[in-house]
Design goal:
Blueprint: H1 2-19, E1 28-33, H2 38-51, E2 56-60, H3 67-79, E3 83-88, H4 99-114, E4 124-128, H5 135-139, H6 141-158, E5 166-172, E6 179-180, E7 183-187, H7 188-195, E8 198-202, H8 214-217, H9 219-228, E9 231-237, H10 253-267, E10 273-279, H11 281-292, E11 301-306, H12 309-314, H13 316-325, E12 330-334, H14 342-353, E13 357-362, H15 373-389, E14 398-401, H16 410-434, E15 440-446, E16 453-454, E17 457-461, H17 462-469, E18 472-476, H18 488-501, E19 505-511, H19 528-542, E20 548-554, H20 556-560
Parallel strand pairs: 1-2, 1-10, 2-3, 3-4, 4-5, 5-8, 8-9, 9-10, 11-12, 11-20, 12-13, 13-14, 14-15, 15-18, 18-19, 19-20
Antiparallel strand pairs: 6-7, 16-17
Helix pairs in contact: 2-3, 4-6, 7-9, 15-16
């Protein structure tokens, strides 16, 4: 009897040593799946989930996606013991005026589940509402928090206590610093944790320890969840956020997974800790493409314009420091062609050494006209001669044009004729720029040219014609919000989708210069921090498009002088 008992205890000890003490059958590793065609990417989603040990998928519900696409995904996921939770959420869902959108989402999930076999049903509902990206958040944060809470209460009231669906929500790590409306002594993060089965804390950092590491930033939420007997997941991202400390984009998936394993060890002592979550599938795919392709082909740009050649020449170090501070890796720089090549070589060399591409820039409204093509060619020839005369590390990567003929009075009277001349000049520009060089040809393009017909090709918009000619096109989507009607995403949608169809590249250009007459076209009034938040939305929403290559801010002078430079 004692031998049997001894053998049993020894077996248990060995088992625990091999498996660990903190593991549990209900541990989770989740992955968000957003802005992805479920029908076309089902196999890839499941493969990526299995490769990364994911057992919960938060899948965004899209109106255009069929029920059959969801049922196929859920059925196949179940075979690999992967749960699929319906994901819904936009920043605007925090506002009372959009409460019905949340209820419509819940209704669609419930309606879908009611008509499906057990193994084809969503097993949970996950809300990802981030109102910090709204203009209203900066105008009246407390009012937004109140409406957000009321909207969540409405959602929770829709579900009975015995609902088979697991209810969860994503929240940013800093929400523990915000008080709950109506209960000022309770952090709003604690209120949310109390009301959901599990909560994913968006702890977007690439380090574990220290005052700004994942462990410290999630301490309060885990302690609150311990007391409430609720579950917590720790969320990280691999997206190119433009801020290295918030993402594993630079480090890669292997490093991220290594850190997530360490998260298990650091936080496993909390009863509430149930695992981790990765944002998102598209980011993982992009990481894979980055590791198998060249860095140039998959580079996500974050840039700005330098319009004064004297600034470029006299403020070399200041520009480089600003670029490093803002994670800028692309500069459009206007040149004074009367200056010798040596005026620019030192700056270009310093920028290239920091991983910053420098594209020579020029342009004037009159450059659209045949009679002014020589001025355009002067720029092209200058840059080509410059590149031939300098060392490899001092070369420009491309030539960028900013030609806006619609600012001239003659545009209204002779639009078609000017467009025709402009087309000829564009073709000449591309031909001469590319002749016997590897220079990239690009130009700025107003967002409304997608409604302008191309002379001689009435079935093609002028924006489509330009995009098809250029290596990349910077679409001037000058608006002060990312989402909604008339927002950046709305105004650039046609260009992004067309570029995707013809394997071309688009960069989104935004404005931060003051415009008192039309404040909606600039982020000047809202400030740089709000602009960054909106550009994060643009990045997240467009990351699944290979045509989308990032964004540029117009311009260095105005961005640098923004209050707080934040």
């Amino acid at each position: 009897m004692k031998k049997h008992l001894l053998f049993f205890l020894l077996s248990v000890t060995v088992f625990l040593l091999l498996t660990g003490f903190s593991g549990s059958d209900d541990s989770k590793k989740a992955m968000w799946v957003e802005n992805t065609d479920i029908s076309e990417n089902r196999e890839s989603i499941l493969t990526k989930a299995k490769e990364n040990g994911v057992n919960v998928l938060y899948v965004k519900i899209e109106e255009e996606t069929s029920s059959a696409a969801y049922s196929s995904l859920i059925r196949e996921a179940a075979q690999s013991e992967i749960e699929v939770h319906a994901l819904g959420g936009e920043p605007s869902w925090a506002l009372a005026e959009n409460q019905q959108q949340i209820l419509d989402f819940i209704e669609r999930v419930e309606s879908y589940n009611s008509g499906m076999a057990e193994k084809e049903k969503f097993q949970g509902v996950h809300l990802k509402i981030q109102p910090q990206y709204l203009p209203e958040w900066y105008e009246n944060e407390n009012a937004v928090l109140k409406e957000w809470k009321e909207n969540l209460n409405t959602v929770l009231d829709r579900f009975s206590e015995d609902t088979p669906l697991e209810l969860s929500s994503s929240i940013p790590f800093w929400l523990d610093e915000k008080s709950t409306p109506g209960a000022p002594d309770t952090p709003f993060s604690t209120w949310i944790i109390r009301h959901f089965d599990h909560t994913a804390i968006l702890a977007y950092r690439d380090t574990l320890e220290g005052p700004n590491g994942i462990v410290r930033l999630t301490k309060n939420e885990l302690e609150a969840a311990d007391k409430l007997n609720k579950q917590i997941l720790i969320g990280v991202t691999v997206a190119d956020t433009g801020q290295d400390h918030t993402t594993f984009f630079e480090e890669g998936v292997s490093d991220m997974n290594m850190h997530l394993n360490l998260v298990d060890k650091h936080l496993g002592t909390h009863d509430s800790y149930k695992g981790t979550a990765v944002d998102d599938f598209s980011g993982l795919v992009r990481q894979e493409n980055q590791s198998t392709g060249t860095s140039e082909e998959n580079k996500n740009y974050r840039g700005t314009y330098i319009w004064e050649a004297e600034t470029l020449i006299n403020e070399e170090d200041s520009i480089i420091e600003f670029a490093k501070e803002k994670n800028i890796n692309l500069l459009y720089t206007r040149l004074d062609l009367s200056r010798p090549h040596s005026a620019y070589s030192n700056f270009v060399e310093k920028a290239n050494a920091e991983g910053i591409e420098v594209h020579a820039m020029g342009g004037h409204p009159s450059w659209a006209l045949k009679e002014e093509e020589s001025r355009m060619l002067n720029l092209v020839n200058y840059v080509k001669e410059y590149n031939d005369s300098v060392e490899e590390g001092q070369k420009f990567a491309g030539i960028h044009l900013d030609i806006e003929p619609y600012t001239e009075p003659s545009w209204a009277e002779n639009q078609q004729d000017i467009l025709s001349q402009w087309m000829d000049n564009i073709e000449l520009f591309v031909k001469e720029t590319k002749r016997e060089t590897n220079l990239e040809a690009s130009m700025d393009l107003a967002m409304w040219f997608d409604t302008t017909k191309t002379p001689g090709q009435p079935d093609k918009s002028f924006s489509e014609w330009v995009i098809s000619k250029m290596d990349h096109t910077s679409v001037m989507a000058f608006r002060d919000k990312a989402e909604g009607s008339g927002g950046i995403l709305d105004m650039a949608r046609n260009e992004i989708e067309y570029a995707e169809s013809v394997n071309k590249e688009v960069i989104i250009s935004v404005e931060i210069k003051e415009n008192e007459a039309n404040p909606q076209i600039s982020f000047h009034d809202e400030g740089a921090s709000f602009m960054e938040a909106q550009l994060d939305i643009v990045d997240n929403r467009l990351t699944s498009y290979s045509s989308y290559q990032g964004y540029v801010v117009h311009a260095y002078r105005y961005w640098k002088n923004q209050k707080n430079n934040s």
